[in-house]
Specification:
The complex is a heterodimer of chains A (about 250) and B (about 170). Chain A has ten helices and two strands, in the order αβααααααααβα. The longest helix of chain A is centred in the C-terminal third of the chain and has 33 residues. A two-stranded antiparallel sheet of chain A has the order 1-2. Chain A has one domain: Up-down Bundle (Cytochrome Bc1 Complex, Chain C), CATH 1.20.810. Helices cover about 70% and strands about 0% of the residues of chain A. In chain A, helix 2 runs antiparallel to helix 4 and helix 3 packs across helix 4. Helix content of chain B is about 25%, strand content about 30%. In chain B, strands 1-10-9-4-3-2 form a six-stranded antiparallel beta sheet, with no helix packed on it. A four-stranded antiparallel beta sheet of chain B has the order 5-6-7-8, with no helix packed on it. Chain B is built from two helices and ten strands; from the N terminus they run ααββββββββββ. Chain B has about 170 residues and is of the alpha+beta class. Classes of the chains: A mainly alpha (about 250), B alpha+beta (about 170). The complex binds protoporphyrin IX containing FE and FE2/S2 (inorganic) cluster. The site of protoporphyrin IX containing FE (HEM) has 25 residues of chain A, from helix 2, helix 4, helix 5 and helix 8.
């Protein structure tokens, strides 16, 4: 009984999820979580062979694509995953918005979610430079130059982000550090808060559902989590199909 | 609404097994079956993923180039007292045409910490600039400094007016 897992399961068994026409949207946050896991795992694997250097990055990425067994798969999963993660986040955001789940007492849940989507975007921006191909170079140049246009502090900010006057080794060092170290840590913190708040408040119910005299619920454990697992399995298969059939996300060569 | 009704509506699995009327062994059997099926399925999936994952993690093949013969150039290009640092495959190597006329070749990797050694014509020795290791230009043995052992030898010979380098080890056609 002292083992905290027992308490966690007990809590999960008590927790209930409302069952209604819009219940499907309750799975979106879970799909976001799936993408977080997929990005962490594939990102970790990419770091095995990726070299964060101005001269060597492109070559190492080409080796991952062409020489290392299944490197193309890991790389495509990571870049497709990045795009689909953002897409899923947007769906999750709009579904909680239209179900009015952001209203009191869940304001902080909403704001922690906004923080998470912000982090996801910085993930995308910093990750885009890392292959150091032409596309990456100019996308980052444009991105940083836009910041440089801001009045008074623009140039200062741009140089700070760039780690110098030009995109170079300094830029890669910064982007790499942010992408693989600072952001994952921040994401874990923000996601932890997000999930904690969701446990504290319980899942929200739509207005019309609250007024029903007979409400249907299902247990979070084992019923909802079981459905969750099917959703995760299905999305993973769909995801792998997209990755394999498309070959590449956009621009490899 | 009675409490009984409430209990009913909060349970969704009405169509499922009524555990109360089922004998415990039947329930356990179904559970054991489901459990082992999930376990087997998981194990198969893990096995399917393990192959690609391991091959991805496996260190790539060494890119070292092994060769068993290299033509360095015409003898006339290397008068006595000159030397040349070159690459024998991917090994840094050193060729020396001694003032006494003999020819020697070595793997130029210093046995101390791996710097590349050079021939010093003025002193007629092989010198490592990193920590001052000195080697005999004819034998490759250590003369001075921190290196724990001599340089590994290569074979230098003259064939049809050209200097040819080969590995010293047997197995290579000499
Ligand atoms: C890393 C990104 C995110 C992850 C992993 C995540 C995960 C989750 C999960 C698992 C849930 C509970 C199930 C559900 O309602 O879907 C949830 C709920 C919620 N999320 Fe997120 N979320 C993320 C980003 C966001 C964003 C960008 C927003 C909006 C700005 C947001 C707002 C909310 C709200 C308001 C709820 C409460 C829903 C309710 O109680 O019905 N989340 N999130
Ligand atoms: S590496 Fe040559 S003397 Fe130390």
């Amino acid at each position: 009984m002292a083992f905290p897992l027992t308490a966690a399961i007990k809590f999960a068994t008590k927790k209930e999820v409302p069952v209604h026409k819009q219940s499907i949207w309750y799975y979106m946050g879970g799909i976001c979580m799936l993408f977080v896991v997929l990005q962490l795992v594939t990102g970790l694997l990419l770091m095995v062979h990726y070299v964060p250097s101005f001269d060597g990055a492109y070559q190492s990425v080409m080796a991952i694509n062409n020489k290392i067994p299944f490197g193309w798969l890991i790389r495509s999963m990571h870049s497709w995953g990045a795009n689909l993660f953002i897409a899923t986040l947007v769906i999750h955001m709009f579904s909680t918005y239209f179900m009015k789940a952001y209203r009191s007492p869940r304001e902080l849940t909403w704001f922690s979610g906004l923080g998470l989507i912000g982090l996801a975007m910085v993930f995308g921006f910093t990750g885009y430079l890392l292959p150091m191909d032409e596309m990456a170079f100019f996308a980052s140049k444009v991105g940083v130059d836009v910041a440089g246009e801001a009045p008074f502090i623009g140039e200062l900010v741009a140089n700070f982000v760039r780690g110098g006057e030009e995109i170079g080794q300094g830029t890669i060092n910064r982007f790499f550090l942010i992408h693989v170290c600072a952001l994952p840590a921040a994401l874990m913190g923000a996601l932890g808060l997000h999930l904690l708040l969701i446990q504290i408040h319980g899942i929200s119910e739509p207005e019309y559902f609250k007024k029903l005299s007979i409400k249907k619920y299902e247990k979070f454990f084992p019923d909802f989590i079981m459905n969750d697992m099917f959703v995760w399995g299905g999305v993973t298969l769909l995801f792998l199909a997209i990755v394999c059939l498309s070959g590449s996300c956009s621009y490899w060569y | 609404m009675t409490t009984q009704q409430e209990e009913q509506v909060t349970t969704t699995n009405t169509a499922e097994v009524d555990y109360a009327t089922e004998t415990p062994s039947e329930v356990m059997n179904r559970r054991v079956f489901m459990g082992s099926m999930i376990g087997i399925f998981g194990a198969v999936m893990a096995a399917v993923a393990a192959g690609p994952l391991l091959s991805y993690l496996w260190p790539p093949k060494s890119t070292a180039i092994k060769i068993d013969k290299l033509v360095l150039g015409k003898v006339a290009e290397f008068p006595a007292g000159t030397s040349k640092n070159f690459k024998f495959g991917s090994i840094p190597a050193l060729f020396i045409h001694s003032p006494d006329g003999s020819m020697h070749a070595f793997n130029a990797t210093c046995s101390h910490l791996g710097c590349t050694v050079q021939y010093q014509t003025a002193k007629n020795n092989i010198y490592c600039a990193c920590h001052g290791g000195t080697y005999d230009p004819a034998t490759g043995n250590v003369v001075a400094g921190p290196p724990p052992e001599g340089l590994h030898k290569l074979l230098a010979s003259v064939e049809a007016g050209e200097i040819v380098i080969r590995p010293e080890k047997a197995g290579a056609k000499a």
